[in-house]
Each structure stands twice: as C-alpha cells, then as structure tokens.
Amino acid sequence: MKTKLKKQFFLHPRYWGVWLAIGLLRLLTFLPWSWQMKLGARFGKLMYRLLTSRRRIANINLKLAFPELSDVERDKLCVEHFISLGQGIIDMTLSWWGSDEELESLSTLEGLQYLQQGLANDKAVILFGMHFTSLEVGGPIVSKLTDGVHVVYRPHKNPLLEQMVAKVRARRYGKAIPKTKIRELIISLKKGHTVWTAPDQSFQYKNSLHIPFFGVKAPTNPSTSRLASISNAQVIPFITVRQYNEKQQATGYLLRFLPPLDDFPSESAEQDAIRTNLLIEQQVREFPAQYLWTHKRYKNPDNSERDYYANNQSA
C-alpha cells in the first residue's frame, strides 16, 4: 500500500516539471560530449541572466575572496562561473546515466599513486572532496578504483529527486550515506571502507569553527579532523575539475589526488581547519571559475549580526 501511494504521489502535477527536466537531461547524454558542453555553456549564460539572487551571492563571494580583482575582472569571472555551473549540470547527468567507458575516456588521473598507496595501507581512507562544479563526475571512476566508495551526500528537499538520486548513487557507488547519519559514516570508516566527503560549505551548527577562507572568516566544518581521529583514517584530498583548451572549449576532466595529510589530525581542531581551508584555497585559485560560488559560504561569519548577503550590507 505504501509503495502504491508513493507512486501516485510522484504522479501529482507538481512533479511534472521535475519529470520533464529529468527526461530532457537524460536525453542529452546521448549527444556527443562536445555538444553537451556547448549546451551547458548556453544554459549557464541563461542562468546568469535569470538567477539574479544567485548571481548576487556569487558576486559577493568573489568580492570577498578576490578583493584584488577589478569590477570588470570579477564580473568576467562570475560569468565564467555560471558557464561552469551550467556545464556542471550536464556533468551530473553524465555521472548518473553516462557509460563508464565514456567517463574514463574523458578523464585524466593525476596523483593516482597517493590513492593506491593509501588503499594499500591497513587504514581506512577519507577522500577530502571540494565543491567544484564537476564534483559528481569523479564518483563512478573513484568507486571502481576503491571497490565501491561510500559517499556522503546532502539529501534533496524534493522527495522525487531524493528517491531518484538515491537509486542512482546506490547503483554507482558502494554506499550512499546522508550527511545526517554520522553513525553510518563512522561504521564505514571503522570497517576500512573508503569514504568520500565534501565538507567545505558553510556549517551552521554548534561545532562550527570560524576560520579564514580567502582571508575572511567563514563558518567551517571540523568533521574531517574528528572523523580521522575517531577512525584512524588517512585523509587524501581529491578534486574533479573540467579542462579547457586555449579557446575555452571543454576538453575533458581532471581527477586530482593530492598527497595524504601528514600529522593529521593534530591536537587542535582549529589548526586542522585552517590547514584544510588553505588547501581548498590553493585548488580554487587554480580553477577559480569552477568553484561553487553561488552558495552562501560566508553566512554568519563570526556569530555576530553581520550579514554579507543582506540587501543593505556591503562586502
């Protein structure tokens, strides 16, 4: 009876638009990848024009992170970010419904030896991910390299999307763990599984640390340090980004594994958070347009009343 009710629920007219969008995105995966990227770029430019509130958030973030840039340079970077964001939606559908062979042919692996060395040790591995717009692309490839990575994700508010994404991730990964189920995450690590997290977004909870990010305090999640301490796991930073040629045409993906963090965690969760934020900054400076700037990374930066995103607040 419950299954029948759920099916009827998702046939409600309010879900028709979601079904249509999913169907169109899935159809795009049958096009040549270069066409997909061109369509993604066009979609990104359209989002730049239409999503005014997200564009405003991105501009505020870019002004805080790159005060050395002129307004013209920052506006150009913002447009490039939305292009990357549009292509990132295509990347997501490719990671869900594309073939492993196509993903592998488009991908270059850098620093793979760090992952292989980590897997060879008698310890679990935490892949410390970062929110670049091609984040999902690396998942299926890493899952094959690790015999089924356990991925931590933020559940969707839309129940239809949540059900579909859960099914896809159950098929593509070893296990999908909602970020609220910390116990499951710890169990996976203690059993020696490789766990992939991306804890680099604004963290508005009691354990939040207010750590500089590009020189400006931002609520920071200290979970990587704590998880490594509890499970004795190795922490290997990992990013997936898009590669472009001199004409700014997408040519493929770069999956980059960085050396495992030595002497991590330390005795100070704050120092660990400073270290990981600096690590993220280094990668973002190399691929600035591809980082997720439409997220309120600097929300409530120091437990004060200051709000960088308020309409009457200048950055």
CATH-derived architecture: 3-Layer(aba) Sandwich
Number of domains: 1
Helix content: 40-55%
- CA radius of gyration is 20 Å
* Text of the CATH class: Alpha Beta
Q: What kind of sheet is the major sheet?
A: 7 strands, mixed
- Strand runs, count: 9
Shape: globular
How would you describe this protein?
The protein is globular. 49% of the residues lie in helices and 16% in strands. Helix 9 links the parallel strand 3 and strand 4 (175-178). It has 315 residues and is of the alpha/beta class. The chain has helices spanning 2-10, 16-28, 33-50, 52-65, 71-97, 100-106, 112-120, 138-145, 159-172, 182-190, 223-231, 269-286; strands at residues 107-110, 125-128, 150-153, 175-178, 194-197, 209-213, 216-220, 234-244, 250-257. The longest helix is centred in the first third of the chain and has 27 residues, at 71-97. It contains twelve helices and nine strands. The protein has a single domain, classed as Glycerol-3-phosphate (1)-acyltransferase (3-Layer(aba) Sandwich). The strands form two sheets. A seven-stranded mixed β-sheet has the order 1-9-8-2-5-3-4, with helices on both faces. Strands 6-7 form a two-stranded antiparallel sheet.
Write the layout of secondary structure elements.
Layout: H1 2-10, H2 16-28, H3 33-50, H4 52-65, H5 71-97, H6 100-106, E1 107-110, H7 112-120, E2 125-128, H8 138-145, E3 150-153, H9 159-172, E4 175-178, H10 182-190, E5 194-197, E6 209-213, E7 216-220, H11 223-231, E8 234-244, E9 250-257, H12 269-286
Parallel strand pairs: 1-9, 2-5, 2-8, 3-4, 3-5
Antiparallel strand pairs: 6-7, 8-9
